[in-house]
Amino acid sequence: MSVPLEHDYIGLSDASSLERSSESSNISSDNVTNNVFNLKATELSLGLPGFGKISEENATKFGPVIKNYMSGAKRGFSDVNFNGSEKWGLKGGSEADLCKGIDGVFEKNQTQQLISSSDVKPVEVEKKGPVSENGSVPPSAKAQVVGWPPIRSFRKNTMATNLSKNHTDVAEGSLGAGGCLYVKVSMDGAPYLRKIDLKIYHNYAELSKALEKMFSCFTIGQCTSNGIKGQGLTESKLKNLLHGSECVLTYEDKDGDWMLVGDVPWKMFIDSCKRLRIMKGSEAIGLAPRSMEKCKNRN
Amino acid sequence: MAYSFPEEVLEHVFSFLASQKDRNAVSLVCKTWYEMERWCRKRIFVGNCYAVNPRIMIRRFPEVKSVELKGKPHFADFNLVPEGWGGCVYPWIVEIARGYPWLEEIRLKRMVVTDESLELISKSFKNFKVLILSSCEGFSTDGLAAIAANCRNLRVLDLRECEVEELSGHWLSHFPDSFTSLESLNMACLSYEVSFSALERLVSRSSNLKTLRLNRNVPIEKLSILLQRAPQLVDFGTGAYSSEIRSDTYSSLAEAFSGCKKLKSLSGFWDVVPAYLPAVYSVCSQLTSLNLSYATTQSPDLSKILGQCHNLQRLVVLDYIEDTGLDTVAMSCKDLRELVVFPSDPFVADANVLLTEQGLVSVSEGCSKLQSVLYFCRQMSNSALISISKNRPNLTCFRCCILEPRAPDYLTFEPLDVGFGSIVENCKQLTRLSMSGLLTDRVFEYIGTHAKKLDMLSIAFAGDSDLGLHHVLSGCESLRKLEIRDCPFGDKALLANTSKLETMRSLWMSSCSVSFGACKLLGQKMPRLNVEVIDERENLDSIAEDAHVEKVYIYRTVSGQRPDMPDFVRTMGKDNHEVYNLS
């Protein structure tokens, strides 16, 4: 059994791990090649993705070595070619042959050599989180893994409200104590809804960007909260709003009223937002000019 | 064979067979028995709504009174299945409305239920009695209003952790004044206030009411009124259990509880104020089920209650209970069968409470009837797991979630293979297992070797290679549901065990190393498996064969491809004309 690798929280192993494991498989690489080639007799080809750690030197028949994978959101893909059913010999051979062959592969003494440890997948981090390009996570916050720990949304949302009541000192912009808060997002005319976790974002701009990605046509039709400088809508943006895509973002608050997103401070917004709705078309007209008025008054 | 039993006699004998498994076995004996059994089967359970279509079901079983369906895969509970994947019940309701006009019961789990479906249910079945929706979504309070208004013989309306679009609280008022048959009402998942006077009148005229689970919005001051109207209650869920302490509220509540001589199950307790907890002391010794998992109370207050619950069989609680509270449980609740401990603050790195593996070891020592465990904790050790397995070889369900993925044995820093291996080796009746922590292929070898009765297995962030998956698929004879996330399992094990997959209900794999090509091959080779690739990247059709799929959901079916797939789902390896064989 090989030494467990060190992982940072989201499970990325560092680049040197691949070299380390290649080393250990190289020790018995001759055995590897021999055992691997013997399987030809059962008509199984080994042109399969993810088949152990075959070092570069022996990779001639089997394609280049499995690529290292680094970044958080996307997994690395094996470069080994998969040419479909012919290589499996499934058309000719029976399933008994197939199993025999596989059992041959999986015989204990072979596996130590063939399959060395570090094929560890990086944990799928939420794609919309504050993760920088190279996959690192700001040290203060704990990266949230989608669907982990396995707790149902109903309980998560209930506990989130409990916790926000208990924590008097909620740090700005931290993922901290609140857990997550999934709300539904509907867009008029879209065939189905989406869900987003509001706790991932820190301000309206981040939310807007994320929603923009999710739904193609979209504009936030209001000013941002007081106190955040430099993020108010410019004159030109407001003009675009009026003459442009006519999308308005609204939310349903705890009282069941539909409100325009952006009027209240961010923290207050996520405490009271129950769901989001992107209004389009004729319903949206008439809301935008109001916000323009508000902006004018504030500025 | 000269003669056989008269049909009437056989039919009478069959009527004693409740379990679907037994009835399935009986129907395979001979054609006569098949025919007889199918005419007298009254309850149907469909574990995967896409495994069969309603017309097949109705054609074979014409006299059904109760239908139970499950939709989305289990991991949908944790947001791993994208919205819009499927599981819509409407097509089933349409067919059932036509085929079973005398249907009495519908139970749905993880399905998308629209208001349209609820309205159709409310108008189609004259003798409709039981509606249980568990983890369902897609409907609003308008749908509930339709049920309330039209189902004259309704006995059970049970909404378990559903996501309901709440337009108002008026739905409850739609129950007509002449409606008196209600036996069970669970509206705990709703948040809007319902009219209290309507609720009070409903409770008063429902003399058969046994279960009443209120929502958060019913204030504590009103509870005593309801309990006085329904002292026959067996199962009661409070609303928010908090307000400023008032002695008259407290005393009337305590008195009301003491009047409920039949009360066996308590739940609710949102926003609990500890000073009100003693009001339930008078019923503690009667309780067989107690759910305090929304009560943010500390251990001492919990211990005071639990110390009196000598007949408790089921306990659901937050980790506020701590090891000391679980010691109390181990000493006082000798009849305990099921323990569930949820985390209070799972996203904080450091422990906020003193709950460790010791609490579970303690309960396993003290509670000899313990069968089912769901335990969230921050640390675990092989020695603790071994102790638990030796203390409780009668465990049937063991789910242990260590909050940090891939956490090793905190004492030795080794993987937890030996510990979980011990669980499967000693607990020979184990039917359900969920593992966590640092696990290598070795644990799967143990599972494949020992877990012969295992029916459902959940794996996350575990294993080293396809060998792990191969051990499970080739060794676990009784396995029907397997769900895997973030494990380095790829094509080999899958393709080496294709016939196993047809003996299972379903296999879920997400963030693993399964390739598109393998999925296609599997789908082509196995016509009675739907290999659904769920992938939200763009251009699904132009992704390379050796690229890894995001998620794959493989399930057996006699119904072909389903016709309601969204664009991020593909059934691999099937020709287009094989869609949804309705005949």
Short recap of the structure:
Chain A: This is Auxin-responsive protein. The complex is a heterodimer of chains A (299) and B (583). In chain A, 32% of the residues lie in helices and 8% in strands.
Would you kindly provide a written description of the structure presented here, covering whatever features stand out?
The complex is a heterodimer of chains A (299) and B (583). Chain A has helices at 16-27, 29-38, 85-88, 95-105, 108-114, 153-166, 204-214, 235-243, 266-272, 287-298; strands at residues 182-187, 194-197, 247-252, 258-260, 275-280. Chain A has ten helices and five strands; from the N terminus they run H-H-H-H-H-H-E-E-H-H-E-E-H-E-H. Chain A has 299 residues and is of the alpha+beta class. Chain B has a 21-stranded mixed β-sheet, covered by helices on one side. By secondary structure, chain B is of the alpha/beta class. The chains are: A alpha+beta (299), B alpha/beta (583). At the A-B interface, helix 4 and helix 6 of A face helix 18, helix 19 and helix 21 of B.
What descriptive keywords fit this protein?
heterodimer, A: 299 residues, alpha+beta, disordered C terminus, B: 583 residues, alpha/beta, 21 helices, 23 strands
Radius of gyration of chain A: 27 Å
The ordered H/E elements of chain A are: HHHHHHEEHHEEHEH
Principal-axis shape of chain B equals: globular
| Poorly predicted ranges of chain A | 1-141, 168-178, 217-244, 288-299
Write down the overall geometry of chain A.
globular
CA distance, first residue to last residue of chain A: 66 Å
Q: What quaternary form is this?
A: heterodimer
How far apart the termini of chain B lie comes to: 35 Å
Instruction: Give me the count of strands of chain A.
Output: 5
Report Rg of chain B.
25 Å
Helix content of chain B: 25-40%
Could you report the average pLDDT of chain B, rounded to the nearest whole number? Answer: 94
Counted by DSSP, the helix tally of chain B is: 21
Class per helix and strand makeup of chain B? alpha/beta
> What's the story with the biggest beta sheet of chain A?
5 strands, mixed
